[in-house]
Specification:
This protein is mainly alpha-helical. The chain has five helices and no strands. The longest helix has 34 residues. It is elongated, with a radius of gyration of 17 Å. The protein starts with 13 loop residues before the first helix and ends in a 5-residue tail after the last helix.
Length: 157
């Protein structure tokens, strides 16, 4: 019997948490409607564009870095290397930060105030059910390299 390789133990794909939170906001809007007047303005549209572009600016270099280093995006597979340079020198979690920014952008485009109200929930869920698990795994796997990296770079930004 071959031993199982260690991995973060995050089973639902993390983008799913953002999508589910958005769907929950739609459910709440149907049950307890809040005005969407501001979200139908040009300012809201521009804000949405800004947040989506900011999200892409975080996600794209992170994805490129992962592909160049042949690292995995699948959270139930072991990491090949520790990412610490480029966008990873600004945030330890640029993909989750980028997804959050895109979530906010989509909220300005297609969301409702419930979408914004649930932002702290999505941050807590990602932090406690994804990031903390990944951090424990990275500490086990990369030991002092990861500890040193954590001292230099913040979790979100």
């Amino acid at each position: 019997m071959t031993p199982k390789k260690d991995h973060p133990g995050v089973y639902p794909p993390p983008p799913l948490f953002y999508v589910l939170t958005f769907l929950i906001s739609i459910f709440f809007q149907n049950k307890i409607p809040l005005s969407t007047t501001f979200l139908e303005t040009d300012i809201s549209f521009i804000m949405g564009l800004i947040f989506v572009m900011l999200g892409i600016l975080f996600i794209l270099p992170a994805l490129i870095k992962f592909f160049k280093t042949k690292n995995t995006l699948i959270t139930i597979k072991p990491a090949n290397s520790l990412q610490t340079t480029g966008i990873y020198s600004i945030s330890r979690n640029p993909m989750y930060l980028g997804l959050l920014s895109i979530y906010i952008g989509v909220a300005f485009f297609k969301g409702n105030y419930w979408t914004f109200i649930l932002i702290p929930i999505v941050i807590l869920v990602i932090t406690y059910f994804v990031i903390l698990k990944e951090e424990k795994y990275l500490s086990r796997t990369f030991e002092t390299d990861y500890t040193d990296y954590k001292k230099k770079v913040r979790r979100w930004i």
